[in-house]
Amino acid sequence: MTTEKPNREDLEQAERARKALETSQLHLVRAKSLAKDIDRIKRVNGIAAALNRRLGTTR
């Protein structure tokens, strides 16, 4: 195991990798939030369709 200092390119590459990871984590959080919103919309649409059927109305 050597104790040489990392060079500038290695440090820059590590910083780019850190930023990319941070960005992908943020995208994952947003995607999970959107998935929850979609599930909520589907549930509401299902309830609305059931009510429409019960009331005898069609779209």
What's this entry about, in short?
This protein has 59 residues and is mainly α. The chain is built from 1 helix and no strands.
Describe this entry's structure for a reader.
By secondary structure, the chain is an all-alpha fold. The protein has 1 helix and no strands. It has one helix at 8-55. The longest helix has 48 residues, at 8-55. The radius of gyration is 25 Å and the shape is rod-shaped.
Terminal Cα span: 71 Å
Radius of gyration: 25 Å
Question: Helical stretch count?
Answer: 1
> Roughly what fraction of the amino acids lie in strands?
under 5%
State the major sheet.
none
Structural class, by secondary structure, is mainly alpha
- Helix content bin: over 70%
Uncertain ranges? none
Helix/strand layout:
Blueprint: H1 8-55
Kindly list the characteristics that best describe this protein:
59 residues
